[in-house]
Amino acid sequence: MIRYARETLESWDEAWPLVESHYHEIAHFQDLALKPNRDGYLQCEAAGGIRVYTVRDDGRLVGYQVFLVSLNLHYSDSLQAIQDVLYLAPLLRGRLIGYRFIRWCDEQLRAEGVEVVAQHVKVKHDFGPMLTRMGYELMENVYVKRLI
């Protein structure tokens, strides 16, 4: 049975195998070592700036979405959420689970007073058309350049 939940970063170790799979699937610069700043994440969570949402299948972690939540520096009255990471195990894709999960996360954020949510979409795994059907709008493109 699929269940969505808000959790904390206490699930970090349990999530690590999924995080590694996620990295190998979508990281643009595969030669940059996967070394998340765990202390930084924990500090941000302790300050109330992180939301961790999970997907579990019969209790087993199979997906997650993490948001950075804060008042926007440009619009200081607007609480906004920026998706940091989103992952769903490949075997569960194409079954509306991801769609329902994103919709559920939106509802959780709305209930907290989040006014705007931004979803990052990799070119390699473009789920932008689904987001458009969900009411999201394409706002900007981000270009990266490797300097070192």
What CATH architecture do you see?
3-Layer(aba) Sandwich
CATH class: Alpha Beta
Helix and strand content put the structural class at alpha+beta
Oligomer: single chain
* Major sheet summary line: 5 strands, mixed
> Which topology does CATH recognise?
Aminopeptidase
Distance between the termini: 46 Å
- Mean of residue pLDDT values: 97
Total E-strand runs: 5
What's the arrangement of strands in the largest beta sheet? 1-2-3-4-5
One letter per element, helices H and strands E, the order comes to: EHHEEEHEH
What sort of overall outline do the alpha carbons produce when their principal axes are compared? globular
Portion in helices:
25-40%
Parts with pLDDT < 50 across at least 5 consecutive residues: none
* Approximate strand percentage: 25-35%
CATH homology superfamily name: Gcn5-related N-acetyltransferase (GNAT)
| Overall tally of domains | 1
Radius of gyration: 15 Å
- Count of helical stretches: 4
Lay out the secondary structure.
Blueprint: E1 2-7, H1 12-26, H2 38-46, E2 50-57, E3 60-71, E4 79-88, H3 97-111, E5 116-118, H4 128-133
